[in-house]
Amino acid sequence: MADTLVVWGDELLGYDLGDHPLNPVRVELTMALAREFGVLDRPGTAVEAPPPADDAALLRVHTPEYLAAVKAATPRSRGHGLNTPDNPVFARMHEASALVAGATRRAAEAVWRGEARRAVNIAGGLHHAMPDYASGFCVYNDPAVAIAHLLDLGAERIAYVDVDVHHDDGVQAVFEDDPRVLTVSLHETPFALFPGTGFPSETGGPGAEGTVVNVALPPGTSDDGWLRAFHAIVPAALRSFRPQVLFTQCGADTHRLDPLADLRLTVDGQRAAYLALRDLAEELCDGRWVATGGGGYAIVEAVPRAWTHLLAVLTGAPLDPDSAVPATWRELAAARCPQRTVPDRMTDGADARYRPWSLGNGAPDAVDRAILATRRAVFPLLGLDPTDPRD
Ligand SMILES: [Zn+2]
Q1: What is the CATH number of the domain that holds 34?
Q2: What is the pTM of this model?
Q3: Which end of the chain is more exposed for a tag (fewer CB within 10 A), N or C?
Q4: Cα of 25 to ligand 1 centre, how many Å?
Q5: Among 80, 127, 128, 167, the one annotated catalytic
Q6: Whether pLDDT at 361 is above 70
Q7: End-to-end CA distance of the chain
Q8: What's phi and psi for 264, nearest 5 deg?
Q9: What average pLDDT does this structure show over 232-242?
Q10: Residue 206: is the preceding peptide bond cis (ω within 30°)?
């Protein structure tokens, strides 16, 4: 049994929407940086080529009509969200999207079957795709396809935690009526950002009340506020739900340099979030942890460093944030993206400290009001007391 399975092949870079913010070079540079640090060569780490998801796997989440539309898509197709500015049809779109879905599905399967304690598809996390339409750069919803597979394999309680700056609307839509799946999303408030959903009042459908948790953070939220909110809500919700496996979507578009959103995290804060997710998997799931990438549009400045930290946490030990970015990688990044600023250290110089909710607070600020709104909306449904600072 491997400690960690990294599902990866360069063919995953074929999910390429062309002149578009979701540039696969961010994934290419992530894997290159992780290799520079030896993260993929650690003892106990296995790298495996991705298998494509077949039609039956995709149809667990998507409609037959949508699948047919994606397979037949041309630059003139209309409907099902295709050929909108966000979701242009691209060459071999079905094949590339099915490969991303298959990679995440394989990661989940390996963890469930005990072939690996942890597994990751850094090219995955396409959480906006809906059963019947493409949305938000996402064609097939690989997290949902993978979670559906876990349910088919017999999983009874799966926790999905989404730290992307955008709401996990597609994953929530698929599982909001299913009491076996807890979805937790921390994101910038839908008043300010796509997709315009993810309010605290969305708490799960009939028979699954309390299995949808939404934390809607104000623009400008930084490491301190984000980590305060995470720790005020996520551990208590997960402890109440008692998941067998933790699935995380680790979009890096919370970074302060991200051009599409307005939160203010550093790579140091993002690294602290990955460590907190690891600790929850260890505490609650015997270490079983499936991870994907997600959004992230500061494709040189932030994403490769954030996800290299993620891969390091997944494969055994976090990297020292004070590490220098290797010169060979800096040259590669400058050559691939000449217009971008190449970072020279693995830190943004932040300390990732935060004020724990359990210590109370003075006058609530906007982040505290967001925390309170979520706790009041969903904690009673989970059997938790929204006013108990220990939870
Ligand atoms: Zn995003």
Answers
A1: 3.40.800.20
A2: 0.98
A3: N
A4: 16
A5: 128
A6: no
A7: 35
A8: -130, 35
A9: 98
A10: no
